[in-house]
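As promised in the previous annual report, we have extended the structural survey to additional targets. Below is the entry for Bifunctional protein GlmU.
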Amino acid sequence: MSISIVILAAGKGSRMKSTTPKVLHEISGKSMLFHAIDAGQKISDDITVVLYHQAARVQEAIEAEYQNVNFHMQDVEQFPGTGGAMKGVTTKYEKTLILNGDMPLITQNSLLALTGGEADINMSVIKLDNPDGYGRVLIDNEKVQEIVEQKDCNEAQLKTKTVNAGIYCVNTELLNRYIPLLSNDNAQEEYYLTDIVKMAVDENRTVSPIYVEEEEFKGVNSKFDLAEAEIIMQDRLKKELMAMGVTMRFPDTIYIDCRASFEGESILENGVTILGASKLINAHIKTNSIIENSIIENSDVGPMGRIRPLSHLKDTHVGNFVEVKKSTLTGVKAGHLAYIGDASIDEGSNIGAGVITCNYDGKAKHKTIIGKNVFVGSDCQLVAPINIEDDVIVAAGTTLNKDVKKGSLAITRTALKILPDFFYKFFGK
Ligand code: UD1
Ligand code: MG
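The corresponding structure token record, generated without further manual editing, is:
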């Protein structure tokens, strides 16, 4: 569709009380601004983000993720306000959709609803029991007449419960003509984008109110708003995943990153956390386990298992208190209390309780390679780099620091001594 999008993200966001720019705060693993950009990119290839506060940091974050986003630096000193933000912005298409960078819950469908029809301006409105803080929208005969900011309202206007949700789709030619004409003659001495509505009405142009769901247009201004938006986003994500066949026990206790993907039929028990772009295929993740940026395929983890980034488990059983990092396990059983880092372990191998891959020598990380049908007994240390070939037994309690050839037994053990009656000699009878 031929529509341009401008995302306003220059504001300071002082109510967040944070050194991180407001729009870079994350909801379900993705920054608020990226949620808005993603929704926008589904309907437009011309997106401009308006920046000012911590502009370099926000721009850098966007550029690391997106190639085709344009930037505009607002002159906040001279032209503060949402109208000032639009000064000097040029857009490619006939219609320009303007939205705020702090509305992470907006969806493609709601954006589309604003772009239709014949009106010169479509604007998003919500009816609220408590309209406090919002610009009031004066509507006559289903046409918007004016938006009055709360601080500029008279007594009667303050009672209006129809408010401006803050998203507009404007005929670009009108926008380009009106923005230079805005004045800051108002209570906040700011240039209000909302004043373009009155300008259009004065020229007999039509401004249509589009009634929208409050939830999607929720602006995030504080850490409390952030937490509320997170709950709404998690609810949405989980509903979609359950509709796709993912089973969740007590969904309210589960956290899922919006970048995670699921295939087949997976089960998530209570307290499970799925982080990053993890991929779960027919996985069973048991109580209180954490999966981070990993692939879990026809495998089960936990309870209380921790799978750290860049791991791939296939046809594998990982039990309680096992930590796996950057490792590939295929057809493996690691039932209890182990650390497996920078390893690759092949089919039919068993990792006993208390096994540790000593992958770090204090300077660098090293790999542990374990072949097929290897039995690693309990409480072994595998000092990497190390290569254990197929069909090997590593006896319980072994500290292994040399490669082991196919079919061997590896065992390090000091001779066992048993001294009869030693207890009584030591402690007395
Ligand atoms: C604005 C609307 C108000 C509406 C409300 C909905 C105006 C004048 N008022 O008010 O009618 O009910 O949103 O949430 O537009 N921004 C800039 N540069 C600036 C100031 C703001 O880019 O100089 C950006 C902010 O980063 C934010 C957005 O514009 O993303 C909205 O700014 P904000 O200060 O929150 O506007 P409100 O006072 O809430
Ligand atoms: Mg606001």
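The chain has two domains: 3-211, 223-410. Residues 219, 221 surround magnesium ion (ligand 2) (CB under 6 Å). These points will be discussed at the next consortium meeting with the crystallography subgroup.
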